[in-house]
TrEMBL record:
Source species, domain of life: Eukaryota
PANTHER family: AAA+ ATPASE DOMAIN-CONTAINING PROTEIN-RELATED, ATP/GTP-BINDING PROTEIN-RELATED
Coiled coil: none
Organism: Aureobasidium pullulans
Region span, Disordered: 127-162
Phylogenetic classification of the source organism: Eukaryota, Fungi, Dikarya, Ascomycota, Pezizomycotina
The protein's name in its UniProt record: DUF7779 domain-containing protein
Residues annotated as signal peptide: none
Domain DUF7779: 302-375
Amino acid sequence: MQPSCFVPYRRDPDFVDRGTLLDQLRKRRAAPASRVALTGLGGVGKSQIAIEHCYRTAEQSPGTWVFWAHASNTARLEQSFREIADQVRVRGRKDPKADVFKLVHDWLRDKSGQWLLVLDNADDATVLSPPPSDGKTWSEDNITDGGTRGDGSSSALQQPLSRYLPPSKHGSVLLTSRTRRAALEIVDDDSDILPIEPMHDATAHALLCKKLGDKVDRSDGIAELAAVLEYMPLALVQAAAFIRERAPRSSVQQYLAEYRESDSRKTSLLNRAAGHLRRDKAASNSVLLTWQISFEHIRSSRRSAADLLSLMAFFDRQGIQESLLRNPGSTADNDSFEDDVFTLRDYSFITVTMEANIFEMHNLVQLATRTWLENQGQLHRWQGRSISNLCAEMPTAQHENWQKCHVLFPHARAASEKRPQDKDSLKEWAHLLYKASWYACAQGKAGDAEHMSTLSMEVRQEVFGEENAETLSSMDMIGRARELGGRYKEAEAMNRQTLALRETVLGREHSSTLTSMSNLAGVLNRQGKYEEAEAMNRQTLALKETVLGREHPSTLTSMSNLALLLESQGKYEEAEAMNRQTLALKETVLG
């Protein structure tokens, strides 16, 4: 027989080379008894790379046998080995008691020519290395010299698959897997694993252009589409298929507009299968469904890791601090947490940054996780848990807390986009957004500050009523945000409303009421309403001197504010006198 290439998929004419990866595979294949694994997220292009490698091998080395085995489960793996036995016409293959793995092993071992075996979708370590039926460890003695199983049975693997892959100097094995753990059942160590990441912008752009074809307007939006889909090959192919099928009534820009409508619209678009792909028929052609299969596997094998993934799906995708993932006051075993992290990293669902306690994940993985949770009726539970953890971690925005606020603010912004449903979560959400808006004000982010404080106020009005102190705090923050944004008239209106309510609810001498008086005086001053601003400042100062005392820092601040206002009106003598009083008191109080 002449060597042949037995790959169950046609070559992809639209394949886009990804740097030196195929060259690396070619060089490694030339090494004696090479074993290499491609690992990474489902849909990242591992199988497509393997397919292209097979065809290039057949072109460059016509004397090489090329075989393909589906390794997603035991039944498919055994069927693939039976097909290989048929392809090379191994003697004894038709014996119902034949150990087809042993037959193929012997043929590969004894073959003098070159061969390449691909094990595709080898995601489950227990498929590649099933536990012994007697509960003991595997022994080389289980492999017999003949072509039948040692126990005479017709069951599947009698040994770990790696033992059926002979270390032949003229053979090589290429494995694709979502997990490092499964890959290490076949390859020797991490040096034999090539992690496959999403595409770079240039290769993603090239893939989209090829898949869209000439009938689709490609003049605008391709780079943007590649970016929002995070350069994930399967997602890119799905999007291109959707647009191409509907052209000319669909375009890249229309797809982008639809995609940005909502999470539910994103899910609808990304759940659409991409048609005839060079993928295992048992695998989904939807990137979201592909990952959700992995989620189910994680949940069945390690529930706590699935819970950790569920929690992480609601934060900003970057800078997820470990402290956000621990239950406040939890005594959970640290080793257990580390095992959960290892599991998620193994599936490439999360990565660890150079700072070991900071995690990152893809937006699309978060979307897939939330969709999976929604399908199980668990979405609001985990959303509430994430809000609770974040609210507990987010401090108020005094200067000494700015660094921590800075780290947590992106997560608060992400939380602001998804209003929770249950009452307890709503209360925490409103409190979180109030603290975040306070920090946004301190950093000059007027838009974020007003948006978050408005959401906070609306919830607090619903839950507590308009005259509640917490509601009034959110109203106060809206006034500050509007003033910061230069919308002085609207800020004045909100400040007047807040002041009136605080005087009624809290009393004229309450510290929060005095804060509202100062805020109103400030926005009046900014509008050139100097007389009213001066009167309000004098009232505030008088009340602070009575309530807080003349030497209180807040009283001294009001004195400085009044001095500045007097100066802006040209009342220089009064301003000087007030400044001298303030200076003398500060020297006494502060030194």
